[in-house]
Amino acid sequence: xxxxxxxxxxxxxxxxxxxxxxxxxxxxxxxxxxxxxxxxxxxxxxxxxxxxxxxxxxxxxxxxxxxxxxxxxxxxxxxxxxxxxxxxxxxxxxxxxxxxxxxxxxxxxxxxxxxxxxxx
Length: 120
Known about the structure:
Order of helices and strands: HEEHHHEEEEE
Shape: globular
Number of strands: 7
Strand order of the largest sheet: 1-2-7-6-3-4-5
Radius of gyration: 13 Å
Number of domains: 1
Largest sheet: 7 strands, mixed
CATH superfamily: enterococcus faecalis protein
CATH topology: Nuclear Transport Factor 2, Chain: A
Structural class: alpha+beta
CATH class: Alpha Beta
Mean pLDDT: 94
């Protein structure tokens, strides 16, 4: 269990990945050290699970480049949405409650890899 020590400034330190983690729900999808850090330090493995679960939607899976953003509101509800490379919305998910420690985080998915934008 995480102590939720995630800070936005921590995410800027990831500029590549030495490790690749295979996602158990969709084994062809991997994620990088930065995405792993978000999940571990932010108590947010559920976020990776949500991104992967949306890959079952053919419209989402058809997009080669996906920009996933989680925005947390003051009341601790959140929106998870996915844009394509042209900033067109593909899908959106309302989240009733989250204890995710940041007000916003963005992850990219392309070539079956989930990663932080700074890791590109």
